[in-house]
Amino acid sequence: MWCKSIFHRGRSVFLLLLLLAAVSYQSGAQSFYFDETSARFVDDAVFDSLILEKAIPIARSNGLTAEEFTSKYPAYRARFADLLLGMLQHRFMELRKLFEYNLPVPGSNADQQAKSKYIAEINKAIGRALENPAAFYPLFARDETDRILSFHSDIVVHPNGRLEVTELITIYNGDGGNASSNDDIRRGIVRDFPTKYLDSNGLWTITGFALKKIYRNDQEESYKTQMLGNGTRIMAGREDVFLEPGIYRYRLEYETRNQLIFHGDKDELFWNVNGNGWVFTADSISCKISFPDKAKLVEYNCYTGSYGATDKNCRVKQLSGNSILFTGTRRFEAYEGLTVAAAIEKGVLVPPSSTGKFLNLLRANYIIPVLLLFTGGLFAFYLRTWFRKGRDPEKGTIFAQFEPPAGLSPADTGYIIQQQYGTHLFAASLVDAAVHKELEIEVVKGKGWFAGTEYNFNRPGETKDKPVPKSAQSFGFDLNRIYGQSAAKGKYNSTLKTLNSELENHLKSRFLVRKGKSNSWHGLFTLNRGYTWPGFLLIAVAVILSFIFMITGFTMPLLIFSLVMVALLIVIQVIFFNIMRSYTEKGRDIADHIEGFKMYLAETEQPVYNQLAPPQKTLELFEKYLPYAIALGVENQWAEKFDSIIRNAMETGYQPAYFSTHGSFGTSFTMNAFSQGISSGLSGTISSASTPPSSSGGGSGGGGFSGGGGGGGGGGGW
């Protein structure tokens, strides 16, 4: 029986020594130091031992094991220190008077007696302090909440910038009872490690992360990883294995790079020890940093609290010239953490090369090289294609031509020179038909401020009982179908739309070179649209990739860059989409002739024209070439030449052959304004009347904070 009693007593002493060693390793918090005399007889270890000796029985009576209580004790050590030193102040001052000038020889009976006096006073103070255990709540309360009992990070910094990190995480897995606030742990812990950080320029940088091993209670543990938007998630444990309630010790070993900050006068590690993403509380958090042997610490700091906080509930202890220990001095709530910063003199750590930093920048901000590649590649592709396929034959010398190329209608000349169709060509054809007295255009001005103009298209009176002449079929559409139709802005007319499309198809069949199709006249130019589809595809891909990147990597500089690059892609596409059109040799000759004719229509009087014997300006000449001027976009300049002639004719009752209106022109009449009104007004009305309603659009040296630096992340249970 006595052997059994001795065994249990020895086991308790051994457990107490182990727990005391654990406390000494974890804490490093506020010291029990009162003065040099008292420190001569009792140190921190004595205080801790005496407190644990009296507190553990109380904890056991409340359902806590010695190990559970010891793991919680470091977070409350500072409270014990403040309370006991205050209670012992008077007695320690009296004891100092006894021994200050008459210190006994260490190890002597007098020395042991003096030490016993100090221990006796400490035991009395501890007894009084523990008379009300509730004052230390929740230290003595059994808490079934899942939580971190201790989190210690051991970091070894190598000269090449590589970090070896060992995280020792002791957790308590509660059973979810006793009003617990967290019961997340089922299979094990979750540890999130960020590998993507934002720099001062608003750009991302990537740090390396390589997990080596995970241990649970000194046995290698299974795990799986998940890629997050900004890092890696580690899930320790197995899907089919559930943990019993109790204390578990995890050890995570990993390596990481690109975590150091290279200042001009120092090199620094700014490290978020546990991360501000843990859903668990933490009773204690500590971190030890060991730089290379030749390093010399010059600056250090620590910060605690939620993200962005600048509290300093932490203690720093320099262990040697190149190593340092940081310890939190209070309990950490969920989403709170410890961030540390330590700097050494330059010359020991090797900074990354410029090439390495540049490649890291491109990898972390992949949208930059992708959009640059898209833009540069598209421009190079289009430029090469334009040189091979899109360049026109060399332009000839342009000189004034007093008539259009033979056999070409106004719509023909406009389509050839502009290489695209527009409703102004249909308007020019209508005016041309009116000039040839095969159509009458009645202009009806609306009444009121916002009333528009309506255009009625009638068969001329002298041809009402005659068949449509053969010449009327040369306008590119069935002229007979337009008789009796009207056009007004905002009113859809399906017949006008059909005739407008007929003219467009007629012009394409005559002049546009298309693969697999022959031309009814001569193929004069090609649009080369087949070479422009890569641009539309790249723009779509660029927009999609930018959107995907911004979901997880949004920063204002990168958003602006993406918008600018997409806009540049669109500009390149628009430019080359338009200049990719090219003339054939014959098309170039005819286009040069039309350019000369356009020059004659547009230019004001020049002496050289008189030497070339231009045709005499008459009303018939004006009407004959007005449709061409409308098609070529120079109707205003052409009308201006005839302003005085038409004014004089108006005084004698002149009525234009190609349209009729009601009332007089008024005293402010000018041919320029009249021509502009008939061309732009008719063209705009035709465009509006040809558009279905459904196709229109509807309406370390300070300045840091908790959560800053590398490392960090968070975790939980699964």
UniProtKB/TrEMBL annotation:
Domain called Predicted membrane protein YciQ-like C-terminal: residue spans: 402-642
Residue ranges of the TM segments: 366-383, 531-552, 558-579
Keywords: Membrane, Signal, Transmembrane, Transmembrane helix
Positions of the UniProt region annotated as Disordered: 684-718
Pfam families on file: DUF2207, DUF2207_C
Keyword Ribosomal protein listed: no
Signal peptide limits: 1-29
Start-end of Low complexity biased regions: 684-695
Biased composition (Gly residues): 696-718
UniProt KW Transmembrane helix keyword: yes
Residue ranges annotated for the DUF2207 domain, each copy included: 147-343
Name of the protein in its database record: DUF2207 domain-containing protein
Species of origin: Flavihumibacter stibioxidans
Lineage: Bacteria, Pseudomonadati, Bacteroidota, Chitinophagia, Chitinophagales
